[in-house]
């Protein structure tokens, strides 16, 4: 009888979740804020809290300031450092620290949070990507329905010094490197505006515009597949996915939905967007499955064979903004929902080291152990071994 009780107790330990921890930034800020970027690298977790501050001058002019902070934490939740970083749109860990892309510019921080490089673009920074020893940065601004400006920069990763720059009469919001440098224009995921526009440009390694494909919808996200650009668009509740080669030819144009995030794994792309999630076969050019969701699918990640979909929305009641949403665990083969966790609006997501970091539409980010999120089989190896041992003990009696 005692062996059975021990077995039941051990089984409970195996099946019970291991709690993680929550982090909090911008606690003293009165404006609406959100964790727009998170990242994991080795033994460090990075998180950025971003917000807009609106200031009115005595003359009635309104100024909008894009502000925020970035902090680093140990895996157990101890804060290592925190710096002012502006409104951060992307974090990318490096060998000796982290690259922080804010709307005001790109900064490089070492492991102790000290600045080792800084680059300020001409317009708002919306995206950047690494390629070898170089960083490509895009920035843009919308001044009116007829006037838009943007720029593409190639920087040296070591100290973020510029190698070359290229000006556009367009608002650039995405950049990826494949067989050529692909640059998208529009409002990226997380932003919106009143004017309809959008293009994809091909740029040579030396900074020459090779071609332009006009889409007429904002480029919301863009990733690379076999050297080509997989583009997700959105405008007025609708959107497409397009596959564009290095010559500027459209190989595939599929009406889908308003796109927010693209994740490419092998020959499959997972597309998240307005209240929908889909998997597409890029080789055969077909939709494999599509799943309706209660909220906007803002961000995606693959972890240990499972697809994580961060969803949510901002809801306003009595002048108060509420962050509501759910983190879904999905079987990537068929779109079956395996688990869901109430988190609030998921604005950013990072995975690694047995952890899942969720940046929410408030000033809180959640660090979850994989055992809290990923479904586990009751016939796992630990439980199976336990039952074998128990069986042997019962036989001896």
Automatic annotation (TrEMBL):
User: Does the entry feature the keyword Transmembrane, yes or no?
Assistant: yes
Query: What is the protein name for this chain?
Result: Pyrrolo-quinoline quinone repeat domain-containing protein
Does Cytoplasm show up as a keyword for this record? no
Q: Which UniProt keywords apply?
A: Membrane, Transmembrane, Transmembrane helix
Q: Which Pfam families match?
A: PQQ_2
Residue stretches making up the Pyrrolo-quinoline quinone repeat domain: 197-342
- Taxon lineage: Archaea, Methanobacteriati, Methanobacteriota, Thermococci, Thermococcales
Where does the chain cross the membrane?
Answer: 373-391
